[in-house]
Amino acid sequence: MGLLTLILIAIIILVIIGIGAGTFLSGLWNGVEKVGSNPVIQNLTEQGKQFFNEKAQNTTSEPRNTTIGAPT
């Protein structure tokens, strides 16, 4: 796994050097905008927000004693 990561990092660095950092970042930003405008991604984002909001509302606001061996 480590070797694959190093190879991918080397390839990305070579691409940035080859096409220029501005062009690389511009293309990367365009890709992010396309993915963000995808309705499937928007629905997943909204579902994730709802899930975490529900979980946050279900938690108690009372502090808990989490010391090991402490009486409950």
Tell me about this structure.
This protein is an all-alpha fold. Helices cover 75% and strands 0% of the residues. The protein is built from three helices and no strands. It has helices at 2-19, 21-36, 39-58. Helix 1 (2-19) packs across helix 2 (21-36). The radius of gyration is 22 Å and the shape is flat. It starts with a helix and ends in a 14-residue tail after the last helix.
List keywords for this structure.
75% helix, single chain, 3 helices, flat, mainly alpha, 72 residues
Quick structural overview:
The chain is mainly alpha-helical and 72 residues long.
Mean pLDDT: 84
* Form type: flat
Strand percentage lies at: under 5%
Largest sheet: none
User: What is the β-strand count?
Assistant: 0
Pattern of helices and strands = HHH
Please count the helical segments.
3
Task: Find the structural class using helix and strand composition.
Answer: mainly alpha
Identify low-pLDDT runs.
Answer: none
Helix content: over 70%
**Rg of Cα set:** 22 Å
Distance between the termini: 45 Å
